[in-house]
Amino acid sequence: MRTEIGIVVSHVPIGPDYRVLTLKLPTVAQAAQPGQFIHLRIAQLHDALLRRPFSIYRVDGQHLSILYKTIGRGTAAMQSLKIEDALSIIGPLGNGFPLDLSAAATPVLVAGGYGVAPLYFLARHLPRRGVLIVGGAKADDILLVDEFQKLGWEVRIATDDGSLGVKGLVTTPLDAWLAGEKKTPECYACGPNGMLKAIGERAMDGNWNAWLSLDRHMGCGVGACLACVQKVRLNGQDTLARVCKDGPVFESRDVIWDA
User: Fold this and answer.
1) What is the pTM of this model?
2) pLDDT tens digits, residue range 110-126?
3) CATH of the domain at 205
4) Distance of CA 134 to the CA centre of its chain
5) Does the pLDDT of residue 247 top 60, yes or no?
6) Looking at the 3D structure of the chain, how many domains does it have?
7) Which of 171, 189, 252, 257 has its CA 20 to 30 A from that of 26?
8) Does 39 lie in the same domain as 18?
9) Helices (H), the chain
10) Distance CA 157, CA 135 (A)
11) Residues 10, 2, 18, 58: is their CA dihedral positive or negative?
């Protein structure tokens, strides 16, 4: 982990609400692992004291990219970033996804909306291809399908309104895949808490691994402020983990979801 000044080399929309920001960030890019994140200071928000966390979408040499959705003040301000603008970055932060796969396991990536971003970084590093199951509210929220298919991944889609893929939650095509396959899944998931909890329940029922990337509001990003704690069970004991430092990736058996 270190602080580095990133220089904007590309900033492009990939849909009505989504953009990819690419920074020249040599030291952080070289150290980054799938599932880690960066903490970015948005200079345009002069009254903002806290940085914003963003999952790492891809790394190409000295360049690191994030994929973000315009939601609040921070991401709205980021839309004005231009080529050659400089940003203060802390990273890479957190513990990412494990990359070892047993010989019998088939990788299954499950994403909700822009939770697909860190899974693309992961997909480029796993030792073999599998299936991506991605869900969103509507067709515009389904991202990176072509990129995954170019890597050789099968893609299955669900949307709430049925405008792309099957109509329903992302667990609909996941359940169909689980019912139709006789392979042992090794699941990696990123998305809203309800989705992660549902996947974790299926993993525990089926006795297979599910690695969940949790999303929490973060203050410092380095484990000091305790703003992002999550109940977990480690070595038979219930405790609190810091998502930014101990995660963001946890195995589903270790996560204790609030009622």
Assistant:
1) 0.94
2) 999 999 999 999 999 99
3) 3.40.50.80
4) 12
5) yes
6) 2
7) 189
8) yes
9) 26-31, 73-78, 116-123, 145-150, 171-180, 193-206, 243-246
10) 6
11) positive
